[in-house]
Amino acid sequence: MDLLKQKIIDEGQVLEGDILKIDSFLNHQIDPEMSYAMGREFVNIFSDVKVDKVLTIEASGIAIGLVTAYEFGVKMVFARKTKSLLLNDDSYTADAYSYTKQVTNHITVLKKFLTAGENILIVDDFLANGSAALALCSIAEQAGCKVVGIGIAVEKAFQDGEEKLKAAGYRVEPLARIKSLKGGRVTFVED
Ligand code: 5GP
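# guanosine-5'-monophosphate complex -> structure
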């Protein structure tokens, strides 16, 4: 997606440890126009499958998950990372190791928001080692749902997330694929 790639080049900052910071439009401040453009792109890419619900993870997945769900005309559910008194035994859980925060999050979705047989599109801002996406797949499958695809805004293709997800049989569709962040410079995988 050229618009996204250009915005990454114009506004992205490369941090220690192969982290890309794009908090001016995706991860802190949100650019609604850019977000809706990404949502529409996911609708185009996944136009061949039926999507009943979008599943993402707080916090950075929510904006992109919401616009994608809006464009599909379906509801969006986000997995929570923090314990809440509102969450109880009536929830599905899975562990996701956070690459940026270096902690394992016990992520949770209330059972009442996923119904067996639903076709789920998983959406997230970044794909690195695949832990967040695999945990979301596990939650969807615990509920008896089918994961019809995984839409990612930015894939760091030099990490092994996509490989793991594809090996597990999932369809992965990134809007921008980063080949390298070496020397503080962003280079993309050629389309
Ligand atoms: P994974 O679970 O695939 O290892 O990492 C994906 C999650 O980690 C995403 O939900 C995202 O929030 C975070 N993440 C991984 N790499 C980056 C990065 O380079 N920049 C930012 N902003 N978030 C990242």
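# post-check
The longest helix spans residues 32-45.
Strands lie at 13-15, 19-21, 53-57, 75-79, 91-98, 103-110, 119-127, 146-156, 172-180, 187-188.
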